[in-house]
């Protein structure tokens, strides 16, 4: 009987450990990918301003967007359950939102580059919690107006 109790306790702990290490590894790889693509796309400027900047002549405009759905890992969800008992910041979810925003912005910039633009104005973000999933998931959409500034 003690073995059964040990397994009943050990299995959830093992799953938490696996969730922690796998989730951390995947998040680390995603951040590395984001940093690499941000360097590649740094020549594409994204501004929140609604107006064409002074000195820029726009010959055309295209609406561009980029969206992503990112889900939390099991370990962060478990820890957040405890955090909700005591209150405070959900740092694990903050990184989830940061990754989602950066990924959505990169995808929007890729669409702008495909349209031949190097300037996007009126950039906005829309964030939605994805309902119906057992783990917290968030959808972030970045959108703006890509200007054709080729002269």
> Biggest β-sheet: count, sense, barrel?
4 strands, mixed
Rounded to an integer, what's the Rg over CA atoms?
Answer: 21 Å
Q: Stretches where pLDDT falls below 50 for ≥5 residues?
A: none
Query: From N to C, what is the helix and strand string?
Result: HEEHHEE
Secondary structure tally: strands: 4
CATH class membership? Alpha Beta
Question: Which range does the strand content fall in?
Answer: 15-25%
CATH architecture: 2-Layer Sandwich
> Structural class, from helix and strand content?
alpha+beta
Helix segment tally: 3
What is the strand arrangement across the widest sheet? 1-3-4-2
Annotated CATH homologous superfamily: Hypothetical protein apc22750. Chain B
Approximate helicity band: 40-55%
Number of domains: 1
Note the topology.
Blueprint: H1 2-40, E1 45-46, E2 60-71, H2 74-86, H3 91-114, E3 119-129, E4 137-148
Parallel strand pairs: 1-3
Antiparallel strand pairs: 2-4, 3-4
Question: How would you describe what is shown here?
Answer:
With 151 residues, the chain is of the alpha+beta class. The protein has one domain (2-148): Hypothetical protein apc22750. Chain B (Translation Initiation Factor IF3, 2-Layer Sandwich), CATH 3.30.110. It is 50% helix and 25% strand. The chain is built from 3 helices and 4 strands; from the N terminus they run αββααββ. It has helices spanning 2-40, 74-86, 91-114; strands at residues 45-46, 60-71, 119-129, 137-148. The protein has a 4-stranded mixed β-sheet. α1 crosses α2. It is elongated and about 80 Å long.
